[in-house]
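Colleagues,

For the teaching module next term, I've prepared a clean inverse folding example: a structure given as tokens, and then the sequence designed for it. I'd like students to try predicting residues themselves before seeing the answer, so please don't circulate the second half yet.
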């Protein structure tokens, strides 16, 4: 598949290296990482597109751009409501023990242009990449959840 990459172990981050949040708020300077499809999966843009003020304003007028798109920006660590003091709660919840039954070490990962600096990847490795296309952010990135389709998938896995 052209939009997949072979899985590799998570690298050890260099001390003090800046991380990228793969679920940032829409705003000028953010990167448009992908578009949420009607199937509830992220269609990655490679390379991501820088967001300008006009796009950010237009999408803000339409309301909740984070429901329709995924944006990347600097990881704010302690400045983010998802920060636990040790890491990103979204990475831990989505790639943790209840991660939709996806393998902890998937064989193929989505093609992603921010993996080299991604907070979720550095924190949880390939398991974060496996579930990443199913994560939706809303309300300026302060509330993050799995897409409705992903929740249905999880329910089907539990029932089967």
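(Answer key — instructors only)
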């Amino acid at each position: 598949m052209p939009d997949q990459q072979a899985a590799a172990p998570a690298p050890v981050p260099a001390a003090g290296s800046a991380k990228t949040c793969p679920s940032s708020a829409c705003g000028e300077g953010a990167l448009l990482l992908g578009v949420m499809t009607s199937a509830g999966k992220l269609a990655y843009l490679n390379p991501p597109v820088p967001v300008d003020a006009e796009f950010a304003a237009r999408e803000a007028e339409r309301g909740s751009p984070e429901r329709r798109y995924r944006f990347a920006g600097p990881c704010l660590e302690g400045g983010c409501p998802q920060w636990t003091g040790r890491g990103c709660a979204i990475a831990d919840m989505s790639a943790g023990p209840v991660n939709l039954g996806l393998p902890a070490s998937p064989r193929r990962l989505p093609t992603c242009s921010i993996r080299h600096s991604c907070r979720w990847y550095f924190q949880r490795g390939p398991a974060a990449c496996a579930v990443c296309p199913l994560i939706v952010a809303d309300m300026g990135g302060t509330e993050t959840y799995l897409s409705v389709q992903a929740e249905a998938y999880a329910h089907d896995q539990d029932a089967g």
